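User: For my dataset I need records formatted as: sequence, then structure tokens, nothing else. Please produce one.
Assistant:
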Amino acid sequence: MNLNTFDLTQLPTAEDDNYEFKSSKIEENIKKFKEKLSCAASAFANSGGGYFVVGVNGQGDADGGILKKRGKQDLRDWVDNVIHEIQPPPSYDIKLVEDPDGRGTIDEGKAVLVVRIHESFYGPHMAPDYHYYIRAGAHTVKAKHFIVEALWAKRNVRKPRLIHLFRLKPGYNSVIQLGVLALTDAPAINVSIQLNPLPQFLDSKSDYFPLKVPVVDSNNPFFFDTALWFEDNDYFGDNISIEVKYSDLSGNDYTYESPVKITDGISPIQLSGPNYPEKIVTELKSIKDAISKIKFK
């Protein structure tokens, strides 16, 4: 749902997994209001997202609305402060609705508060009372221990994690490639790849480094040419490290660093059998063709 175009006609007629309704009377007890908001925000963030709506009855109709200020503080600022007490704070949007559009009544100077809590992959989110909450049907409840453990596991899986790998270039098995691959389903974006120092094979390509890749995920690994198999480690070097910097979709930054040794990842090509001379000629021709076609895309 787009809060920019949201109105009360879009509310369901009862609470469910995605909606929690609170009457306008809740503002008479600010401590309770704050507690209900923080627990609901924790629950929705841990349960796929949802909406906390204040100023409506149990059928989703406006029942007067709530003041747009808490003392001298703007209601939006007050909500910001409450949600930022959750650890880690979830992503959210706020809308104040002043026109009921036929769904009940809203008093002058008041509004219906709609807080949208986005689905999170970085839970579990803990409320200020040091408990974790989830949605159970139309209710916000404390999460049992095994649920919290599952949320932690989900958080770890959703983090993008990258690793490097050597392989023989498909179609040019005389060329060795270094690749950066994803270990999880979460995409890594704005990926920067640097080799320190650059191997001899790439000296002439220093202007390309660090390599910039928009995204690396389980469907889009990134490989580039690094050496020829017949000179492998001598040509590549044995004191080289890779540094990969990247971000997740929420803007969190990560760095993967590791020494890279080409002989740990690639087995030498074996030439044997009755056609040994012919294979040597074929492989040498392949090497020559590969050298002439090496490009960075």
